[in-house]
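Ticket opened by: R.M.
Priority: normal
Category: complex prediction / small molecule

The reporter submitted a protein together with 2'-deoxy-thymidine-beta-L-rhamnose and asked that the result be attached to this ticket for the collaborator who will pick it up next week. Submitted input follows.
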Amino acid sequence: MHLRQETSISDPSTSWDIFCAVIDNYGDIGVCWRLARQLVAEHGLKVRLWSDNLSSFKKICPEIDLDASVQFSRGVEIRLWAEGNLAVMPADIVVEAFACELPQAYVAAMTNTGRKHVWINLEYLSSESWVASHHGHASPHPRLPLTKYFFFPGFAQNTGGLIVEKDLAARRAYFLANSKEQRDFWESLGLSSTASKDEIRISLFCYEKAPALSLFSAWSEGSYPVLCMIPEGVATRQVSDFFGRPCAGMGNLYKKGSLTVRVLPFLEQDSYDKLLWGCDFNFVRGEDSFVRAQLAGRPMVWQIYPQEGGAHWPKLEAFLDIYCSGLPLSSSSAVKVFTEAWNSGEAGVLNWENLWSHRAVLESHAIEWANHLIKKEDLATSLVLFCNNKLK
Ligand code: TRH
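Result attached by the on-call engineer:
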């Protein structure tokens, strides 16, 4: 197991505000919540997380109280970002996640504290090569004496890195080495603790247009049992169409041929990690589950968040190039062809059996890739170092 060096780079008296506007789905709050927790747990910082949508937040953190405008969880002060709640002293470090635009009054207040503030725009993750040259760029405010810095997560050395908790590798190794932990986890989902002979377990988290029907066909006709676990509300149309009855929500079980589909509740973030660790293969999407699946060290396929005019394709290709560079040509081509078909919706090209014939290679590659990512400086650490330098 790789143990990462402890750092003592933080001044615990430094305060942080993280602003998160939920556009849709769970990735925005998923990333912000993970970062906020890590800043508290590993850097001992005082963090307020502002969310404009507590319902989305509650999906990944069930203890959220929908009626509380101020609450604490895991040492993070969680505030409802709403008109009337913003009369506060701005923090030393202010993170606006994904260009969510800080409230005007809050920005004005930053100029009146008599203190220095560091204003960060935390961008979306991309593997594209231009990211390194934009990371850390300053954008002076057109009127006020404030500067905003662009902080880019990324895979390359001179980017902001990825969110990776220091104890992640140890927690994953403990889970995988401990059959009781695994048994308890599967049983908590109402599933048998051990896979049946030859069974493969797959988690499926995808967007509406994913050609899941063709996967279901391949799995149901396959020569080995497949248990596919899908979070409630995901791929409901495809499940209903394939099994010929409505997808009625969590707990439901569907069977056809070799395929069993189980609808799971949305899991709390740490339990979702366990699902990714415990499955033989993971389908993930967006930004945060995409990173967690890589860190899980399991073979995976990514569905990128689709953007207007196909702007997501270069991002997808840039990732495939770095992820596949260590694979033999035939395995690399299998991953690329499958991922492209999964993202374009071209069911005819989606060849599960071809992809799965590379299982052994994909499994060892996934472990190497996870270990490679875990060794790098993580996003929270590089963000703290960056902000400390600007605060000086
Ligand atoms: O929900 P997403 O599609 O979020 C997307 C992306 O972030 C995208 O880049 C952004 O533009 C868009 O939102 C607005 O997928 P993502 O990023 O994987 O986020 C899902 C979060 O939910 C992540 O933190 C993992 C978490 N999760 C759980 O905690 N439990 C679960 O059971 C599942 C399925 C997910």
